[in-house]
Amino acid sequence: MLRIYRKQRLWIKVFVLAAITLLLMIFAVYAVVWDSSDEDEFDFRNFRAEGLSFYEAAPSGIKYLKKYYFKSWNAADSIKLFFAKQSQFNRLFKEIDLKDHKTVSLSFVGDIMWIRNGWSSFLDESVRRYLSESDMVFGNLETPIDTLLTVPALLPDYTNYNSKPDLLRSFRREQGGNIFTALSIANNHTLDKGHQGLERTLHFLEKEGILVTGASTASTQNEKEYLLIEKDGVRVGFYAATWGLNDPDLLRKGDTRINQIYGIAPLQKDKIELSSKYKILKKMREDSVNIKILFLHWGYEYELYPDEAIIKVGRELAKAGADIIIGSHSHVVQPIEICLGNGYRLPSDSLLRFYHKFTDSTGVPRKSLIVYSLGNFTSAMYTPLCRLGLIQNVTLYKSSSTGLWDWTLGESAFVYNNPAGIAGLKRKLLFYRDYIETLSAKSPEKGVKINAEVSSVLQLYQ
After folding, report:
1. What are the DSSP calls for 206-264, one per residue?
2. CA terminus-to-terminus distance, the chain
3. Alpha-carbon distance 250 to 302, whole Å?
4. DSSP-assigned letter for residue 396
5. Inter-axis angle of helices 444-459 and 432-442, nearest 10
6. 40 CB-near residues (< 8 Å, 6+ apart)
7. 26, 75, 334 from 67: Cα distances, Å
8. What is the pLDDT of residue 217?
9. Which one of 70, 216, 249, 401 is most buried, by most CB atoms within 10 A?
């Protein structure tokens, strides 16, 4: 009898889920296809929910859904041309001969988000092995992992997350231990399960041996404002910050500290505050940090190019000493930029016009990498561009000309979140090339359609 009762409960859940999903799909189709209430049909591309309260954003729900479905390619032609041109020459930073150098390999992934199910089986073995080969792996954990609370699973998606421990435990090295060296926990979902949810998440990460930066509670705060990680003679500083929270009032009700970049959401260019970030970079320099990394949850959802204000912030932080700046939050992959400082030379001076140049107080020739957004790493989102994520590899080495630690670009590897199907049985995080090859063999038309949709992003990383 108990078994029959459990089966009945399961079928009731499946029926309810199917009914809710159908209703949401009907509403979404209406929102993105038939609704034409906006005076300007492209007005939704300019809508940004960041920094708005739920009640402020709710009236623009249809705009939000349209932006999610269609995405925004809004950017000045000069910006699009700049990134297209620079992408052609960034291969120069992959051609450095490192045969006689001691190296340390880094891998960066984007938003590690809630998935409904399949936690212990979703990770493709090829991706796990690939990341295991890196000396250090970094990402953005955009969900609490509170083992005392339930994981939402009834609706297709949520605005308030919690995830199973296996979301991260699936990433294990052959010799044991988690693949992730350190994670940013500074994002708009940090307090989705409140202050206690964050505290339990931090305790879970500590047990897993994963370092964290970006947020802390009274019981987990330490003296350093950034992480210092040492490996084979190189000292790496890692610091994370976010534009804010979905519910900023939560910060006024507890003792949690979250690193923030003020003025980005909602965007107020004259109020963007970077002095605290300058202090962090200065402190890293005083602590003899060789490579300074900032992981910033910035920008705006579903936009394929960074806003001009975000580009300016990135360049200012590069000038202030950041060697590598990694971006997240947009849920789509955005371009990368390399900035050249203090007369850094390229094989041909004619190429310098394709790069932003700066001068700082050190006078030492150097370069800075800005990855504006890695997109989603794990996700249950529904559009191909939101299912696509980037693993950006970087190799650290000691320069023979300056005697200082430097970096060179490694492979840009794309992954794809395969749709879950029924009960998560098909859910897989695998390399995009493997996904599209398998899909094209089964359904050539679908393969061509998805490849066409993501091709503009892939081209900027070839």
Report:
1. HHHT-EEESEE-TTT--S-SSEEEEETTEEEEEEEEES--SSGGGGGGSS-EE-B-TTT
2. 59
3. 25
4. E
5. 150
6. none
7. 17, 15, 16
8. 87
9. 216
Helix or strand run (H / E) with residue 69:
helix 61-70
Provide DSSP, 313-326.
Answer: HHHHHHHTT-SEEE
**In the numeric block, which tokens belong to residue 14?**
């499946």
> Pick from 354, 348, 267, 272: which is nearest to 317 by CA?
272
The amino acid sitting at 36 is S
Q: Just give the CATH number of 77-459.
A: 3.60.21
Nearest Cα to Cα of residue 381 among 345, 351, 418: 418
Q: What pLDDT, on a 0 to 100 scale, did the predictor assign at position 253?
A: 80
pLDDT by 10-residue block (mean), the chain, 462 residues: 53 57 52 50 84 82 91 94 92 84 95 90 96 98 95 77 95 93 97 94 96 88 85 97 90 87 95 96 97 98 97 98 98 97 90 93 94 97 96 93 89 93 77 94 94 94 83
Q: Say which residue the tokens 């700049």 belong to.
A: 82
Which tokens go with 44? 């939704």
Looking at residue 272, its pLDDT comes to: 97
Instruction: List where CATH 3.60.21 sits in the chain.
Output: 77-459
The one-letter amino acid at 263: G
Given a contact cutoff of 8 angstroms between Cβ atoms, the answer to whether 414 and 432 are in contact is yes
